[in-house]
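[Q] Does anyone have a clean structure-token version of this?
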Amino acid sequence: MVLLLCRQSIALIVRQFYVYILSSTSRHLYVGVTKNLERRLYEHRNNFVRFTARYHITRLVYFESIRHPMTAIYREKEIKGWLRAKKIELIESANPAWDDLAADWFEPPPADGE
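[A] Here you go.
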């Protein structure tokens, strides 16, 4: 997300980066980093990413927002280096039911007449 704040000709751009974990229904995991979580999730759900398409990994089960790109990349690498049990602990600390946190992000448009 980019937020542009102007005050007396001074502009401040606030950027957000996201480290995220996706899961399949059988709980295969994928860890990634992006500056546009909605776009990236759309890519995963529409099979633009080979690994997640192959294993049907499309459910957003965890994410965190980070302001600095290098910090986000380091965090992604840190999580990727963890054992599976530690990744599961992280997910369950924020999302114990493993709900799809983006379940309603891509609602189909209403049918004509609705």
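[Q] Thanks! Anything notable?
[A] The chain has a mean pLDDT of 88.
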